[in-house]
Amino acid sequence: MTTDKQKIQAVQAIRPDQEVTTLQKLPYFLGISGQTVGATGLSMHVVVIPPGAKAEPHIHVGYETGIYVLEGEVLTRWGTNLENQVVSTSGEFLFVPPDVPHDATNLSQSKPARAIVARNDPAEQDKVVAYTVPYSVTGK
Predict the structure, then answer these.
(1) Where does 16-96 have alpha helices with state H?
(2) H/E run at residue 84
(3) pLDDT more than 90, % of the chain
(4) Do 103 and 56 touch, CB atoms closer than 8 A?
(5) How far, in Å, CA of 15 to CA of 39, rounded?
(6) Does residue 26 form part of some domain?
(7) pLDDT for 140
(8) Alpha carbon distance 22, 56 (integer Å)
(9) Is pLDDT above 80 for 136?
(10) Least confident among 4-13, 107-116, 120-129
């Protein structure tokens, strides 16, 4: 019989083949988290943004996010009115500080974008909050 403490201290391999739909409205493939391996300070998943798809604006309450783009080109808008933007391409990292409103859009209309997402919280989806932009930003 394995106890919770033994499970946390065990080295475990995870194949990210369990897809979940997140509050951001993107498919995530679960990897490391408190739920899957008993992690206490980290989560790490694969996100796929379908061709032309866009994440809902949201905030990660109280934790940092690091993203490594495996494939594709993703536009991330950020700020109170999503007035700032950065494009991340294959082979690049992106850092999102805690509590910063943002969204992400796959710039390709024909290919999915894929990325590894790491966070310093083992239950990060419990702390994702939908964000409503205070007013519409023209041209965004």
Answers:
(1) 34-37
(2) strand 84-89
(3) 65
(4) yes
(5) 16
(6) yes
(7) 47
(8) 10
(9) no
(10) 4-13
**Which residue range forms the structural domain that includes residue 24?**
16-130
Q: What is the spatial order of strands in the sheet that 84-89 belongs to?
A: 84-89, 73-78, 102-106, 58-60, 128-130
What 3-state class would DSSP assign to 127? Answer: helix
Q: What is the rounded distance in angstroms from the CA atom of residue 118 to the CA atom of residue 63?
A: 10
Q: Are 98 and 121 in contact (CB under 8 A)?
A: no
CATH code assigned at 55: 2.60.120.10
- The answer to whether residue 135 is domain-embedded is no
Interval 25-72: pLDDT, tens: 888 899 998 888 989 999 999 999 999 999 999 999 999 999 999 999
Token pair listed for 44: 């790490």
Looking at the chain, list the stretches that DSSP marks H as alpha helix, in order from N- to C-terminal side.
4-9, 34-37
The answer to whether residue 45 is domain-embedded is yes
Q: Is residue 52 part of a domain?
A: yes
Q: Collapsing DSSP states into helix, strand and coil, what is residue 78?
A: strand
Unique residue bearing structure tokens 């790490």: 44
**Number of domains forming the structure of the chain:** 1
